[in-house]
Amino acid sequence: MPLRTLSLDVVGADHPNRRPSKQGKIPRRYEIQLCEPGEPVHLELEPDNPVDPNAVRVLSARNIQIGYIRHERSMLISGYIRDALEIVGIFQRATEWGAIIRISTDGSVPDLPPPPPPRAAESRAYVDDDPGFYPDEEWPD
User: Fold this and answer.
1) In this structure, what CATH number is given to the domain that contains residue 10?
2) Does residue 99 contact residue 88 with C-beta atoms inside 8 Å?
3) pLDDT tens string 6-20
4) How many Cβ atoms are within 10 Å of 85's Cβ, its own excluded?
5) Where is the HIRAN domain (predicted)?
6) Are 5 and 64 in contact (CB under 8 A)?
7) What dihedral angle (degrees, nearest 10) is formed by the CA atoms of 123, 29, 107, 37?
8) Could you tell me the pLDDT band of residue 65, with boundaries at 50, 70 and 90?
């Protein structure tokens, strides 16, 4: 029995798109930045992919490729597509490696999970305990 809803990593954001869209060759990272959480994404099999015969392309709502489902999940997801499950996908969020999408395998629109809390390094201000630089109290004129 397939999983009903799951989040998937989309990788390959730094690679160029091989197939130009109607708008030309739009970089994947640029397209990812245009995606909004909750907007639809489409999944397509790419059996002629030279690296992975189970490759699953991820296309934005504007029909521009943003990357691929991570290899570790592509066999599972390509099997779902071949079994004609009604997969519905939405954009979840951009990441440093590409993006995360959310899919359902029963035809329903998946819910977005709550956003992750900010990382500790991002949420605290940098404090230099010993800057090693002590300016003169008065500037020479």
Assistant:
1) 3.30.70.2330
2) no
3) 999 999 999 888 766
4) 16
5) 32-96
6) no
7) 40
8) very high
Give the closest residue to 63 by CA, choosing from 42, 86, 92. Answer: 42
Round the average pLDDT of the chain to a whole number and report it.
86
Question: How would DSSP label each residue in 8-61?
Answer: EEEE-TTSPPSS-BTTB---HHHHHHH--TT-EEEEEE-TT-SS-TT-EEEE-T
Domain containing residue 83: 5-104
The amino acid that residue 97 corresponds to is: W
Give domain status of residue 36, yes or no: yes
φ and ψ at 114, to 5 degrees? -65, 150
pLDDT digits (tens, 9 = 90+) for 12-57: 999 888 766 665 678 999 999 999 999 999 999 999 999 899 999 9
| Residue 18, domain member (yes or no) | yes
Total structural domains within the chain: 1
pTM of the model: 0.77
Please report whether residue 92 resides in a domain. Answer: yes
Instruction: Tell me if 39 sits within 8 A of 130, measured CB to CB.
Output: no
pLDDT for 90:
98
Structure tokens at 124: 């605290």
